[in-house]
Each structure stands twice: as C-alpha cells, then as structure tokens.
Amino acid sequence: MAGRAITLTGTAPAHASVAVHLRSEVRAPFVASVVTANASGRWSVRVGFARWAQYWAAASGQTSQRTSTNRLYPTTLRAPARVTRGALYSITGTTRPGRTLTVYGKTRRQSGYRALSTVRADAHGRYAARRYLTEDLSYRVVGDMSSSYAMTRVQVSSHAPARVRRSGKATVVVTVTGHATPQSRVELYTQPYGHRWRVSRTTTASASTGAWSASFTGSYDTAYLAKDANRTASPSRWVQIRP
User: Of 3, 54, 56, 238, which has the fewest CB atoms closer than 10 Å, so is most exposed?
Assistant: First the structure.
C-alpha cells in the first residue's frame, strides 16, 4: 500500500555489516540503510516506499538477488442506492491513475458475478462507469485490489393523468402505470382528498420489462403512489376529477 514501511529480511555472515540498497521510479540506486547481522547471521530493516521500488543487500563482498515491491492502490466504489428502471446512472470511485478496471455484476437471479465492462481511470485515479438499470444489480470493481460490494435497486415509478373528466358519469376510471423490479409485487396506495393513504390494489410487474398497470374507479380528486418489493415508494401523483 502507498506510504507504508516494509520490512526486508535476509541472512549474511554472523555480525557482518549489511548495506541495503534501494532503487525507485524516481531515484537512482542508493544505500538506504546499513544494519548488522546477529549471531545467527539474520538481519532485518524497515524501509518506506511510495511506488515501485527495488531492493538488494551487500555484505562481505557478496550481493543478493534483487527483489521488487509494487505499490497497490485500493479501489473505491460509490453508487446510487436506487435508480428508476431504465435510467442511465454512474458508478464512480478511485484507483491507480491510468489503471484499467473490470466491473463485475450480479442480479438476484444469477448465482455468481460476471464481468460487465472495463473502464480506465484518469490521470488522477478517478473513474466512472455508466450503466442502464434493468433490475436490481449487485457489483464490485477490480483494479489493483477489489472494491467493496454495492447494490443499486430499482426505484418504482408511477405515472397518472393530471386531470380526468367525468363526461356525464358519476365516476371515472383512472389508469396508473409505471415500472418496478421485474416480476415483483407492486402495492398501489390511494389517498382521496381529505383522507389517509391506504393500500387499494396489488399487481405484478412484467417479468420481461418490469412494467405494471392498474385501473381505479373514483369520483374525488385522489393521489396515487406505488411501493415495490424493495419497499421503495414512487412519487405521489394527484389526479383531479373535473366535470
């Protein structure tokens, strides 16, 4: 990880002076530390590094093989908790500048994660992947390291006419439509003017498109909203009934 100190260890003749050499992306080789091996010939030293670094040790006229350490950048992930079905949204985060990442996703119906797309971080390590939401999706992003898991759920939507005319009848039919998680149960709530909200009907969203529809008979101005299996609520829609 960036900015961490690492411990180098090795063996040399007992009580020998060990010169530990370091070469990095931005520095020519230099002696980072000189330590003394113990009676068993073992030695260790802690050194810091910022990015890629290469190390080797020399003692009693002999030089060790070289070993390298690469900096690992954590991968962060941010995403909206809920998005209306079919909407375009972005998942964002940070990782190694210029790093290509793989986005993995899994729906509720899938048993495992699968690769969805790749995206490249900019010079500051920021990335953004844009997606259209079709159903609840859990995902992670893998770069130098894997991000934490996140899930974006379908936000139920609803649509209704602003006004309905009676056309001489005492009651009218109001049709409310929307989208939700495919094949999920949708509860329709109504609130006639001056009354409280109540569950008036349930329906099931289409297994393929997530679309749903419900019709109501009424004679008063009424508000409508829907709740889906994720317990998310759509915006309420007032429908005015006019002569």
Answer: 3
